[in-house]
Known about the structure:
The chain is α/β, with parallel strands linked by helices. It is about 45% helix and about 15% strand. It has helices spanning about 20-30, 55-75, 75-85, 90-105, 140-150, 155-170, 180-190, 210-215, 245-260, 280-285, 300-310, 325-335, 345-350, 365-370, 375-380, 390-405; strands spanning about 1-5, 35-40, 45-50, 110-115, 130-135, 175-180, 200-205, 235-240, 265-270, 295-300, 315, 340, 355-360. The chain has a 7-stranded mixed β-sheet, sandwiched between helices. A 6-stranded parallel β-sheet has the order 10-9-8-11-12-13, with helices on both faces. Helix 9 (about 245-260) packs across helix 14.
Amino acid sequence: xxxxxxxxxxxxxxxxxxxxxxxIYEINKCLNHDAYSVRYLSYDLHATMNDETAYDxxxxxxxxxxxxxxxxxxxxxxFRRIVTHPSYYPIHAWKRQKxxxxxxxxxxxxxxxxxxxxxxxxxxxxxxxxxxxxxHNKGAYVHEMRNSLSNNFFSKKxxxxxxxxxxxxxxxxxxxxxxxxxxxxxxxxxKFPNVLKNDNIEIIYNGIDIEKISKINVPLGFRETYGIxxxxxxxxxxxxxxxxxxxxxLIEAVYRHNAVRKxxxxxxxxxxxxxxxxxxxxxxxSRLKMNGNVKFLFNVQNDDVIRFMKQCCCLVMPGTYxxxxxxxxxxxxxxxxxxxxxxxxxxxxxxxxxxxxxxxxISIEAxxxxxxxxxxxxxxxxxxxxxxxxxSEYMVSQYEKIYSRCLxxx
Length: 410
């Protein structure tokens, strides 16, 4: 029996989560549990995962604690100011370090598969453990942190510490994997190349549960439960309200399309929660008088996202800094026509004119032209959109090859 630790920074994997925890969920689900004894570790959960449903069970237990914490954060302005102030970071870092050290000092797995640099930081010097690091971010983590933190002493100290942790984790790992070539290139571009000293790099593309998606049915009256007219031709966008997602360009492109076309399009954006940019997007919709043609939805369950994909006329994702978007894979598996930006991991996923359209440029005009020339929906559904190489099973088989190679197994 191989003792495997799947680790990341925070959260807990479940069927409806996203990011690195979604990948960990799929790995655990597809692994042979007769060969692997699996445990999960993050700042929010340390637990044994001996079958594919374990994450959902633990997730439901932890969700209530998370809801209580989120409620306090949302409703208590004093608490919110304290825990988000840069000077609180040393306290938070000390608590986190104590938590991870207490666990890492008493367990010695055969393999650590970390999905965040902090995932095996406290095991870096422990001999005999095989260490695999998978990096999911858009470039170096410290690069994203730099864009979101204020410029003061505490923030700079935090960045310096994390930069060292990230570099050490990369260099010490037996194998480093990225979900696309674009992800690897972004990482190298946002780090100083002379500090990176690990040539054991592999690309393992993210995968999805194709069989599960094929079995999700759309009940009668589904869209009406979300306040969307029954006959609306839905243009779907699944992205948080962040500037580089370019949701405003999509809204303006649909506005132009509707101004000259008989058949009107209806924009549905699905995101995790309202953000700083949400108000600006709502103001744009009001200014264009498109309140009857745009719907912002938050925290929609993944199965319902799939149902929207099966009902919409297309998915449009015009964002920049794309690693390898699982939303696009899910759309392909749903038989949905996709229009995406021609950058990053999209180029490795979409064959222009075969299983989707790559935007010639990220602009209102380019999106509008693609919408105007959108293929007949029936023709789209008849095309082969996705193959087994994009499945969770295939992704996990590639990780298992790395596990076996690290342990010198046949």
